[in-house]
Amino acid sequence: MTVTRSVVLGCGSYLPSRILSNDDLARSVETTDEWIVQRTGIRERHIAAPGELTSDLALQAARAALANARLDPSAIDLIVLATSTPDQTFPATAVAVQAGLGMTHGAAFDLQAVCSGFIYALQVVDGLLRSGAYKRALVIGAETFSRILDWTDRTTCVLFGDGAGALVLEAQQQPGDRSDRGILTTHLRSDGRHRGKLYVDGGVSSTQTVGHLRMEGREVFKHAVAMITDVIDAAFKATGYTAADIDWFVPHQANKRIIDGSAHKLGIAPEKVVITVDRHGNTSAASIPLALFDAVADRRIKRGHLVLLEAMGGGFTWGSALLRW
Ligand code: ACO
User: Fold this and answer.
1) Ligand 1 atom closest to Cα of 25?
2) pLDDT for 299-308, tens place per residue?
3) Most buried one in 23, 127, 150, 182, CB count within 10 A?
4) Where is 320: in which H helix or E strand?
5) 237 and 301 share a domain?
6) Alpha-carbon gap, residue 27 to 21, rounded angstroms
């Protein structure tokens, strides 16, 4: 019996041109390249130019994904944009992307789940496509975290960067067996008791300011691997696949030590892990599609490969997605 699945038709990304190295940072806060690399694996990150907005990054990534899918914006009827750094309080950054693409049809909205945003967006879009309500969607993760960093706080400003990535997904009939392409399963979790461990100390309703990112790094670190392995185990249980079946593991790129610890605990071989945190830093909701594009562009990820995604972040929120490319 055939089943409807959300199949990836294309992938694109965009990084602002300015690169900020660890040595550059060491000129403004008391840190060293050695400390940052050893604790996080990060060597450099991209920073948006003055006046370059989250929607500008998202639009570039969306155009690249559409070009990769060989599709015109007229073929898209849904845009979901995951971000915690929108252009404005409202309207949604997604409608700026919609307008930038010249689309006057379909629906566009933002979704906010911090670093897990892209996985949350995938589950939402997968549900909407499989319901038959939409045919083809752009799922975008785009962030300008540089705008919410306290650049005098060395414990946070060294960790994050700006960027955007996008996928084009299409509802397609698949055979309903192990050869199925598309999203096979998604699992989301959150636990608001941890909301004070990674947050922004401003907001519309509380302070009427934008605020700065604050984090209890050790607390985040302490929970990360267990939460990540929890949702990946759920993905394996739901599908019957195991770590040995995975072709590529594309985790949220927050910290090399968290990624290595999760892969090790799950039994995923290091050569199957896609790493971009060294060059991108943590780009929050953008990090997974940026890493996907990296591995598609250099032809590591190919059609038919089994790809495992996961993320964990503020809230805490965490989630996984398993798909066949
Ligand atoms: N350079 C030099 N020294 C520093 C820096 C820095 N950039 N930052 C902190 N230190 C110092 C601290 O002040 C502390 O000094 P002290 O011992 O004199 O007090 C010392 O280094 C150790 O600090 P810790 O916070 O204990 O360092 P730790 O080994 O835990 O590493 C880190 C910190 C990298 C933040 C780690 O806790 C971590 O990776 N946590 C997870 C954070 C993360 O990934 N967040 C994002 C995930 S969720 C999301 O993506 C939004």
Assistant:
1) 7
2) 999 999 999 9
3) 182
4) strand 317-324
5) yes
6) 10
